[in-house]
TrEMBL record:
Top-level taxonomic group: Bacteria
Pfam family, one: HD_5
Origin organism lineage: Bacteria, Bacillati, Bacillota, Bacilli, Bacillales
InterPro entries: HD/PDEase_dom (IPR003607), HD_GYP_dom (IPR037522)
Residue ranges occupied by any HD-GYP domain in the UniProt entry: 113-309
Stated name of the protein: HD-GYP domain-containing protein (C-di-GMP phosphodiesterase class II)
PROSITE patterns: HD_GYP
Length: 370
């Protein structure tokens, strides 16, 4: 299968990966044949990209790091908690919500089980098009990424539990923000940003009252916008005053936000998002934490269309976890832009004079201009 922006999708193409709505319901099943009506429906649902199967790429498999049912369970847990809190009055939010921690422990244990069953934890953007934009799935993505980093750092199960649950709930304080602010489809003004910054304090105040949620998890909600140099918020903490868990979640939050589309911009290319994080090492975040994150990210995910420095274009078909930046590419067009009769594979680990210069779908990613 291969990844296309929805603007490149055409009637007659075969869906290569099931697409879900923001609340976990199936929007379009694997194997469905696209029609104009179905494409219009995807546009209305906020889908910006889709995996499709064709004869040249049908053997390319995009593996999910966690199972779709695990992702839906976690997202559903977050969604139900948000609704429960929003349906209560502000006074009730300051007291413990029955079994909140238990439900999140169950959801996280499913995530951890899937990750521990994966012999090579390498995060592809496997859900890049399979879920419409949703704060719930953003929270799950951040939790998965943070847990993968925690595992690479040798965290024990209890540490992973505090980290993963804190990651799932890092933005829970947004329920206290004005609804019109969360629904706004343009960038926030400076005044709106100052209001939005309060979600960190709101989140901490909600979580610290939950008797079965760790205080460390609550501090993730409070500190995930703090930065090593003291430039963050809400307290302007610096250095070791910022908990390591909060730094990990901050890194994962930034990466997932940048590589997700917003109403006012396309998604950033994975390598651009990673380059930003690498540049912030030692400045905004500890170097070793950024490096631990980098070691588990496939910046050219399987199924993505790429362009080589030779002008050849193709689809990433394999990624060696030891050489994430040098995948194997199945070439579909030669350097002159002509379709090749027999697609061939280029292993960039072996052919060192060739390298990827970008993605071939201009509609999918935000391109930095200088």
């Amino acid at each position: 299968m291969r990844l296309l922006s929805l603007k490149q999708a055409r009637p007659g193409m075969k869906v290569g990966k099931t697409i879900f709505t923001g609340d976990g319901k199936v929007l379009l099943g694997n194997g469905m044949i696209l029609t104009d009506r179905l494409i219009d429906g995807l546009v209305r649902s906020g889908i910006d990209a889709i995996y499709i199967d064709d004869p040249q790429t049908e053997d390319i498999v995009v593996e999910d790091l966690i199972r779709p049912e695990t992702r839906r369970l976690a997202a559903d847990t977050i969604q139900k908690t948000v609704k429960q809190l929003m349906n209560s009055n502000k006074l009730a939010r300051r007291v413990s919500v029955k079994d909140m921690g238990l439900h999140f422990q169950q959801a996280f244990q499913a995530i951890l089980s899937d990750l521990m069953g994966n012999p090579q934890i390498l995060v592809h953007l496997a859900n890049i098009s399979t879920f419409s934009g949703s704060m719930y799935y953003h929270a799950v993505n951040v939790s998965v990424l943070a847990t993968a980093v925690g595992m690479s750092l040798g965290y024990n199960r209890n540490q992973l539990l505090d980290l993963g649950i804190g990651a799932m709930l890092h933005d829970i304080g947004k329920i206290e923000l004005p609804p019109e602010l969360l629904k706004k489809e343009t960038r926030w003004t400076e005044e709106e940003m100052e209001i939005a910054k309060q979600h960190t304090i709101h989140g901490f105040n909600i979580l610290r009252k939950q008797h079965d949620i760790s205080l460390l998890s609550a501090h993730i909600a409070l500190q995930h916008h703090e930065r090593l140099d003291g430039s963050g918020y809400p307290q302007g903490l610096s250095g070791k005053k910022i908990h390591e868990y909060a730094q990990i979640v901050a890194i994962c939050d930034i990466y997932d936000s940048l590589t997700s589309p917003k109403p006012w911009r396309k998604r950033y290319m994975p390598q651009d998002a990673l380059e930003y994080l690498l540049g912030s090492g030692g400045y905004l975040f500890e170097h070793r934490l950024v490096q631990a994150f980098r070691d588990h990210i496939a910046i050219f995910p399987v199924g993505s269309g790429v362009v080589l420095n030779t002008g050849e274009t193709g689809v990433v078909c394999r990624v060696d976890p030891k050489y994430c930046q040098r995948p194997t590419v199945r070439v579909m067009k030669d350097g002159r832009g002509n379709d090749v009769r027999m697609p061939y594979e280029v292993d960039l680990k072996e052919e060192l004079t060739k390298f990827i210069v970008g993605f071939d779908d201009d509609e999918l990613f935000h391109m930095e201009t200088t």
